[in-house]
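Listing S7. Sequence submitted for prediction.
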Amino acid sequence: MTTLTRADWEQRAQALVIEGRAFIHGEYTDAASKATFDCISPVDGRSLGPVASCDLADANLAVADARATFESGVWSRLSPVKRKQAMIRFANLMDANAEELALLETLDMGKPIGDALSVDVPGASRAIRWSGEAVDKIYDEVAATPHDELGLITREPIGVVAAIVPWNFPLIMTCWKLGPALATGNSVIVKPSEKSPLTAIRLAQLALEAGIPAGVLNILPGYGHTVGKALALHMDVDTLVFTGSTKIAKQLMIYAGESNMKRVWLEAGGKSANIVFADAPCLKAAAEAAAAAICFNQGEMCTAGSRLLIERSVKDQFMPLLLEAMQGWKAGHALDPATSVGALVDNQHLNNVLAYIEAGHAEKATLLCGGKRTLAETGGQYVEPTIFDDVHNSMRIAAEEIFGPVLSVITFDTTEEAIQIANDSIYGLAAAIWTSNLSKAHLAAKALRVGSMWVNQYDGGDMTAPFGGFKQSGNGRDKSLHAFDKYTELKATWIKL
């Protein structure tokens, strides 16, 4: 692990050469219109430089290139073992450039440099390596047939994939999509969020260096309503994958229906319930996990444990433990390795989070800590980790996704009430329960309508476990072998012998 100090990181930030152009067929290029937008760091408000603002013309160029590359077979018909080797080289190059990628991630979206270096970069390279290693170990099927017939069930790459990725985990989310999409032989166009495009742009060059052919991975920075919409409506995009808000996810489904019925796979919002029962094995551990669940990545997580449900009989014992645990999560300069809570992604989002805090006051919830902007003198977008007590599930702060370090505490009396409150949401991404009762754990886990269920921990899992949601949290799954289903077509071939 690096021993770099804040001063070291700041010095590197000043010397960093930032690439902001699009990447099409193995080359960095300006947008066709030459338009750019200014990339502003939420860490201190300074400009990181211009970024290409792509639109329809760039989408047409990138899709045509991706299609031609796919049809050429240079990647799509390359043997699985050779694709695997290139992807492992790609992952190794990400690890070799970890400090640069971490610095880009922190400067671009504000997360603590320690997290970017220890969580985001290794998690992203692991996703690429895991998918690459898996691809030559997945077998097709032979149907049960009479002796004079042969039934084959095979998977084929779907073709051109457009991936629209979010700003909260730009590198990891990009690689969750890229891993299985590339491993199965597709050509991929990534549209990073305009709030955090820099690591995706840098990844493209590393992929090329790893031996992934030009045209297999194209990067189109720009806005959702321009280049994102163009990709979603494009008649030659076969699959659209997205992580982001439920509102945008619904619009992308409409665009797919208005165009070519492209497959659309969506991971959208969440309002996850973290349920602490009176028989939790360790209330202190549950309190520490609850603090981390709302503060990690500044609460800018679709799985953030933003609704904390506490059984009434232990609430008086639990709340001091929670407040003590929250003391370990303080907003600080994102380039300081000691910082645990960095900057929110931009000023607009900061104002949105502060507006939700005002809504909590207006709805008569009780503020226990935080609730204000902090470190404004840095020029960055920082807010104090915040807890509201006496929250009812109908309040806006309990029902709507805030995407910031704002925790709503809700009290319950019975298991049935806790499950009812947890399920009373348009979302169904994740939930956690804390109990020593094995039967209660199993029964509650079955009853909760979520895609990821954690028991006596929060945010568990690795690349072997699928990730995605129920209800308006989306469809399809990232991670695990189940993710490969999104990027392949299933073909039945019946042969008369």
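Caption to Listing S7: primary sequence and predicted structure tokens for the chain studied. The first strand starts at residue 22 and ends at 24. The chain has two domains: 6-268, 273-464.
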